[in-house]
Design a protein that fits this description.
The complex is a heterodimer. Chain A is α+β, with helices and mostly antiparallel strands. Chain A has helices at residues 22-30, 66-69; strands at 2-3, 12-18, 38-41, 51-55, 61-64, 72-77. Chain A has a single domain (2-77), classed as Roll (SH3 type barrels). Chain B has 24 helices and nine strands. The longest helix of chain B is centred in the middle third of the chain and has 48 residues, at 213-260. Classes of the chains: A alpha+beta, B alpha/beta.
Amino acid sequence: MKLLTDVPQYKKVIINHLDTGHGTAKKLESLGIRKNVQLKKISPLKSKGPVILSFLNSNCQIAIGHGIAKKIFVSEIS
Amino acid sequence: MNRILLFGNPNVGKSVIFSRLTGIDVLMSNYPGTTVELKQGTIKLKNKIYQIIDIPGTYSLSATNKAEEVAINILSSATKNDIILVVIDSTNLERNLFLTLEILKKKLPTILVLNKWDLTQIWGTKINIDNLSKMLDVVVVPVVGISGDGIKNLVETLTHFSLNPKISSVKLPEKNDNIWKFIGKITFSAQTLSHKHPSSFEKLQELTITMPYALIIALSILIFSFIIIRFLGENLTNYFLDPIFNKFYMPFVKNLAETFITNKHILKLLLGNVPEPMESFGILTTGLYVPFVIVLPYIFSFYLILSFLEDSGYLVRVAVVLDNFFHKFGLHGYASIPILLGLGCKVPAVLSTRILENEREKIISVVLILMLTPCLPQSAMIFSILSRYGFVTILSVFFILIFIGLVVGFFLNKILKGETPELFVEMPSYQLPPVFILLKKLYIRMKSFLFESVPMIIFGIFIVNIFDLIGIMHFITKILGPIMTKILGLPDEISIVMISGFLRKDVSIALLTPFDLSLKQTIISCVVLVIYLPCIATFFMLLKEFKLKKSLIIVSSIFLFSMIIGAMLNILL
């Protein structure tokens, strides 16, 4: 398990845990970011800006602030 | 009157469908949060008139900003006599179903509209409409809002539905975890996705959000846009509209007025003092020359470029790229959208701050909207009167303004208590902007300038003439004049310019022409006239968004600050 911000570019991940407050978790959920969702990270590892994610089961891309991405725990999948 | 309410996630195309159903022109763009307030129209179904309401998009029924609050309030006011149209982006079924289920829980007559149906083929998504309809127990209609395909079918379905409204009897899970399981079940049965390898175009798209390429691309687009806007604006004025105005319109209107009107005061009011259209200050001369010859070409060229950027999907990428930079001012990158809109007109820019989460963020962005740059009509006038000093002078005025704005934003972030919210934004896919939407938006924006601003410009010039005639101008100059001279180093008469600028910002710059100011004085007056007060239309929008006390605090602080800046420039330059 690692932080979303520590995942290299173009790696696929599954979300294990959201360490955010209730309000943020709800907002992330309404955008489709929740436990067990599979995503691909589009932004590069070293980027200090927003983390850009692409959903594996739809054609949607989402950008979330670096501060929030640091609170999302994921596992890499192949 | 019974209502048809258009709900859905942001950027699914509700406004396009609203416009197709009602024939009303509304602004539609390819970024989440284009619609921030309710838009209303009507439709006749079987001799019965329904009110259709286009509602700001929301991801769920718990509001995170003012625009979403509007949507949630209207849903709670809905009754069984209304029809709910839930608009879904067909390429993103799973996420859109979350809000759909929340709305179905309200047990209201509902139809599901699958928009962007044509894109499902491109993206390799197949949706089985029958399965979706059975599982949710709702009527499902596929449409392509942009081309209008399926709209006729939607109207027929609505007509039939209005006679036999149906409330979904689907049993929805109570617990959140189970909701996602239920959504999973629906998508498993109603949707198949084919695997797609990323194309080279998609790789290219990623460059627009990957540093340092993203910054190079953004800067190139900015410079390129600026060159096109200036080129189109200036040439339309110099080689097309100015010759028409001077060669045909001026002699015609002069002859006409002089033939029918003998009273010299009225003649002066209509035609002004001198033959030059810019300096005469007559209602039929300067009053029409400023909006039609100088400002309109820039409105055309600016909104052509802005609409293109909005609809291509690039604006959201700019917001993402600028996120880090905007954090220095206590904002997240999405605040760049209201600020960009402010380059055109401050009124919609202030309104669009509704997409921002908290009051602190709204205040900082409004201050930046008001201080960073002039509005487009004022910019056009600054280009026009400063062009004789050369391009560097024009740039220096803009540079001073941006520098001051950024410093103020930086300090506001330090002074105002609170945290900077994080960015959450869905990135629309890139697309070639649909020509029909591009032209429609250009038409809406030019029409709104002509119908809302031109009367104000003429009124502004009328007031200046009346003040001059009855001697108020002299009185104001006497009272405020010494402040202008001592603090700003400007002639006494500039005080009247300051007052007219509250009516129209472009008129205030036009009023500078007869004064024969030095370069230093012109720069100081341009900078001060941009910042000192918002125009009256923007002031009313501030009142609407912030109430009286906060608006007055914002406006008076900016005014005081503009005087300090003016004084400093007077000493430094």
